[in-house]
Amino acid sequence: MNQAARKDVILVVDDSPDSLGMIHHALDRAGLTALVALEGEQALGIAEKMVPDLVLLDALMPNMDGFETCRRLKRHPELAAVPVIFMTGLTDAEDVVRGLEAGGVDYVTKPVRPDELIARIRVHLNNARITRGAHTALDRLGQAAFATDRAGRWRWATPGAEERLALHGADREPRLAALATRVRRWLDHQPAPGDQSALDLDPVGPGDGAELRLRYLGDTAAGECLFRLLQRDGEEESELLRRQLHLTRREAQVLLWIAQGKTNREIGQILDLSPRTVNKHLEQVFRKLGVENRTAAAGMALRCLTSG
């Protein structure tokens, strides 16, 4: 017997019972499951017990407004990737920006038009599914990866990235703020997929952010910027090349530096090899990859590094 398809769960947060009733009815007609909360603290409690697929959040509420509620939702690693759509009677651009800066992905104005609301919900549910697919694939591969928006604001991360960036306890918020600044400045220079940059964050403990590099993997289908965290010695990337392209350890190291534009002489200095030995390794790399020159080999390496 086929089980019924799981319904997407929408958490609706609004201090107006009338508004809650109308939205609940629209969601039910659209085949979506609604959870309701009348204020921010209640919403946080519900979300922690049952992670929703999307949150509809009133911007202006007593006690804790929607902006602060959204910020607190995003502090939870389990909730950080849940899309938040703000509902507001405010049309001022500054208030819209406040919602996006708090972690929202979209907004609708009140009075809410049900058809428009459902259409926007479906778009963001689909984007979230795409994001979860990338997240799950990277997590299964053991990759330390994370995604931000174009302004560097945190969207989601694999457990490996959370651990390497030391995003825990009281250090989480200041470290995310520092990371956002660093990522935003780099994105302003329009890096190409495969480009790398040193990540200079103040270390919290041995091996923390100060010893890491970022590799830009490109934009996801959901419009997020995807990054991989790497150790500065390049050992992880050469190991990836070794496994994926069936090379020896030394051949993978040589290919990694070829992909970064180094000459045989420079590679020899880095790896403590003679240029002739580097060339011998490179000949074997060309043979195994079925290519004829450095450019083609570098291209294969970069494709492997940005997709694996």
Structure commentary:
The chain contains twelve helices and ten strands. It starts with 8 loop residues before the first strand and ends with a helix. It has a five-stranded parallel beta sheet with strand order 2-1-3-4-5, with helices on both faces. The chain has 308 residues and is α/β, with parallel strands linked by helices. The chain is elongated, with a radius of gyration of 23 Å. The protein has helices at 17-29, 40-49, 66-75, 93-101, 114-140, 159-164, 172-188, 235-245, 249-259, 264-271, 275-289, 294-307; strands at 9-13, 33-37, 54-58, 84-88, 106-109, 145-148, 154-157, 196-199, 212-219, 225-231. Helix 9 (249-259) crosses helix 11 (275-289) and helix 10 packs across helix 11.
Quick rundown:
The chain contains twelve helices and ten strands. It is α/β, with parallel strands linked by helices and 308 residues long. The longest helix is centred in the middle third of the chain and has 27 residues.
Described by strand count, sense and barrel closure, the largest sheet is: 5 strands, parallel
Question: In percent, how helical is the residue content?
Answer: 40-55%
Strand content: 15-25%
Low-confidence stretches: 204-210
Mean pLDDT: 83
> Helix/strand-derived class?
alpha/beta
Order of helices and strands: EHEHEHEHEHEEHHEEEHHHHH
Span from first to last CA?
Answer: 38 Å
Looking at the structure, what is the overall shape? elongated
Please tell me how large the radius of gyration is. 23 Å
Q: Compute the number of helices.
A: 12
Strand arrangement in the largest pleated sheet = 2-1-3-4-5
* Number of DSSP-assigned strands: 10
GO molecular function, one term: DNA binding
Keywords: DNA-binding, Phosphoprotein, Transcription, Transcription regulation
Protein name: DNA-binding response regulator
Domain HTH luxR-type: 240-305
